[in-house]
Amino acid sequence: MSSALNTKPVLLDASQLRNYGRIMTVLLLMMIAGYFTVSESIVITQGVKIILRFTATIGIVLLTIGLKHKGHVFALELRNLFPVLCYGAYLLLGWISMFWSTKPSYSGLQWAMDVQSLLFAILFMRTYALMSCLLYT
């Protein structure tokens, strides 16, 4: 059994919670900035988008792992399955569309960005819910 499961959660004080909140804000702003075109060159735009989005996703993953190692449990309850099923169907259709696309590399990049955005959103909301619980306890 993991030693993290046997330990009590490390309590975070208000300044640590503010720091985590600031980090989450920066990560969210990076993710939003990744949706905008920054240059006329498609190569530069795609490069910047990939770097910003994956940096934000890696950052939220590391933040989530850090909080788990401190013993905090993530409890985000799924109350409505329909939007999840719709987004899953959307991703499936996007994956299938790569087979008849005129530019499969571009379609693949778009599909990967959609999957990455979903992962970021799920982890961000889980971390936000945990931070809200820690703030009000």
Task: Show the helix and strand layout.
Blueprint (H helix, E strand, L loop, with lengths): L2 H4 L7 H20 L8 H28 L11 H17 L6 H32 L2
Helix pairs in contact: 2-3, 2-5, 3-5, 4-5
Structural notes for this entry:
The chain is mainly α and 137 residues long. It has five helices and no strands. α2 packs antiparallel against α3 (42-69), α2 (14-33) packs antiparallel against α5 (104-135) and α3 (42-69) packs parallel to α5 (104-135). The protein is globular. The chain starts with a helix and ends with a helix.
Q: Average pLDDT value? A: 83
Shape: globular
Please bin the fraction of helical residues.
Answer: over 70%
Oligomer: single chain
Helix count from the secondary structure assignment: 5
Q: State which percent range the strand residues make up.
A: under 5%
Structural class: mainly alpha
- Listing every helix as H and every strand as E from the N terminus to the C terminus, the arrangement reads HHHHH
**Distance, first to last CA:** 28 Å
Poorly predicted parts: none
Q: Using DSSP, what is the number of strands?
A: 0
Rg over C-alpha atoms, rounded to the nearest angstrom: 18 Å
Specify the biggest β-sheet.
none
Question: Could you list some keywords that capture this structure?
Answer:
single chain, mainly alpha
Give a summary of the structure in a few sentences:
This protein has five helices and no strands. The protein is mainly alpha-helical and 137 residues long. It is globular and about 55 Å long.
